[in-house]
Amino acid sequence: MIAIIDYDAGNMRSVEKALARLGQQPVITRDPETILQADKVVLPGVGSFGAAMEDLERYGLVPVIRQTVASGTPFLGICLGLQLLFESSEESPGVKGLGICKGHILRIPGGPGLKIPHIGWNSLKLSNNGRLFAGISQEEYVYFVHSYYLKAEDPSIVTASAEYGVTIHASVEQDNVFACQFHPEKSGRVGLRILANFAALEGRKG
């Protein structure tokens, strides 16, 4: 069973529908026991970094997420869900992220011809043999909606990057933790393959 964490941060239904198309039976939940018993867990999200961290705290989900990650369960952050896994964001000064991965979320700098937020399709440069990208070619296009981007501290965890006036660390993999700044659930054939690769991962409970 794949648990999709519900913390009032949007795009849960689109993730649920995409996983269902792959033959999975996802459950949208904020129940700690359901999340901890799941085979895999997804943290989706759109919106503000600070408000999202506040909601995760309010629902008591921060320790649940930490325990899930520590147990070895495959864990996937999407969009804001990626950002929350890191230490901080320029969007919400003084607010600490989950800090599960090292790095910071920065505002995309404006520039000639660059609209902020960054909305639309961008190609990916794959690196470090990310398991989410098995069977996916270089320069495939995926769909982004964001104004802030990840700069990971450790380049070895970066499995895909994109260019939009700056190099965006678009996907990361750290042990059983995976995350995408883009929306695989809105990225057509390529996005479904990414989600299928995640669904096929074997976890480690312990």
Domain module count: 1
Strand residue content: 25-35%
Compute the number of helices: 6
- Category from helices, strands and their pairing: alpha/beta
Quick one: how many beta strands?
A: 13
Largest sheet: 8 strands, mixed
| Assembly of the depicted chains | single chain
Low-confidence stretches: none
The overall pLDDT, averaged over residues, is 96
Helix content class? 25-40%
Question: Can you walk through the features of this model?
Answer:
The protein has helices spanning 12-21, 32-37, 49-58, 62-70, 80-84, 188-199; strands spanning 2-5, 27-29, 40-43, 75-78, 88-89, 103-107, 118-123, 125-126, 141-146, 148-152, 158-163, 167-174, 177-180. The chain has one domain (2-199): Rossmann fold (3-Layer(aba) Sandwich). The protein has 206 residues and is an alpha/beta fold. An 8-stranded mixed β-sheet has the order 2-1-3-4-13-12-11-8. Strands 5-6-10 form a 3-stranded mixed β-sheet. The two termini are 17 Å apart. The longest helix is centred in the C-terminal third of the chain and has 12 residues, at 188-199.
Keyphrases for this structure?
three-stranded mixed beta sheet, Rossmann fold, eight-stranded mixed beta sheet, single chain, 206 residues, globular, alpha/beta
Present the secondary structure layout.
Layout (H helix, E strand, L loop, with lengths): L1 E4 L6 H10 L5 E3 L2 H6 L2 E4 L5 H10 L3 H9 L4 E4 L1 H5 L3 E2 L13 E5 L10 E6 L1 E2 L14 E6 L1 E5 L5 E6 L3 E8 L2 E4 L7 H12 L7
